[in-house]
Amino acid sequence: MNSKSYIMEKIKKKNVLIAAHQGTFGGNIGANTISSGKNALLHGADIIEADVTRDTEGVLYMFHDAHEPFNFAVEKHIPEMTTAEVSALRSFNANGDKCLPAPVRLDDYLKYFKDRDCIINLDRCWNIWDEVNELVSKYDMFDRIIYKSPCGEKYCEFVKNCKYPMIYMQIISTLDQATEALRYGDKIAGFEVLYKTDDDDLCSDSFIDMCKGEELILWSNAMTLNDTDVLSAGHEDNSIIENGKDEWKWHFGKKFDIVQTDWPALWVKFRDIYFG
Question: Quick check: pTM over 0.90?
């Protein structure tokens, strides 16, 4: 059984939790760093979303693999690098200056946030959960760590057979995927839902009400990844900035439990207005 009571209490208190995508970064603060996590909390975020990868020697880092060319101007990815190679990396800040330090290690990241009142989503690490779990166990943080993965039986089986109480949410885009995952009972803490239209099954009142009745956590994405990917039927950060309150009211009105954004301070402000 997972240990999501800490998270459920947060949801009960705040109605909707705000997740900061890779922390809150910009200026001279890089994504997936301790500083971006601290900044997200200062902006009022409840959850820090962060990515984890591993080098060839088994050291775990906070970094979104495949973003190496953009961040470091190198073609080699961290899973292909030695620890020494990763330590030598320097990233670009928002002005294009190469001055930020190498990716922070997961060990140091967890050590810093262990005693902070926040939730962390360790993302993109579904193929290295064994190693990640050892560090989460070291800091006794399973009640505050959310794991996510694409849909798939192998991930459900891992969580089912894991000796640790993982809070696991599956990323789904169809109702059939939800039905398949729910065969695993309380091993499924909830879903990150991806939907392209307002009448999609995964943002329907019936699906959301079912999930509420089963105390399943629902995570919706408001961040704008790019000009082509649709994560939440267009009800996302860029639309909110351009069109205003109707867009954020849509998300809150749907009663999702978590909304992920690149601009947490805006969403915290909107949440305070909406729920009064």
Answer: yes
